[in-house]
Amino acid sequence: MNQDTLLLLLTIFVAITAISFAAQAIALFRMAKTTAEMKQRVDAFLPKAERLIQTAETTITESKAQIAQITTNANEVLALTKTQLTRVDALVADASARAKTQIDRAEAVLEDTLSRVHSTVNSVHGTILRPLREITGVAAGVRAAVGHLLKGAPANVAQATTDEEMFI
Going by C-beta distance under 8 Å and a sequence separation of 6 or more, which residues neighbour residue 163? Predict the structure, then answer.
């Protein structure tokens, strides 16, 4: 290779390098400008973000206290409910036992009363109604005898036979 060609090649490479450095400088300048704009935007947004973070931290702190209070209240309500349900269960069990005892007693009283009524009815039948039947039978006999005596002797035999048949 001769020197002129080599010099020409080196000049072309140096020119290409110079053009690439110029392009890089332009790109870096634009990046610096864009970075400055972004910094201004971030600087404008940063106070709002800080206030939002502080508000969020305050809200979270207050919420933690309220959530703790709500949890405590809910646990107390659950414990009270459990205690009350235990009491109600015991009360229902006691009431059921008492009701069963009272029903058993009522059944015993009813059974005793029915047996006494039955005994009384049997006594009435034995001591009152039987003598009444006997008295009624005697009275019917006396009435028939008095009626027969008052009527006198039958006028004919056919009438007497009819009366006897009716008696039998």
Answer: 154
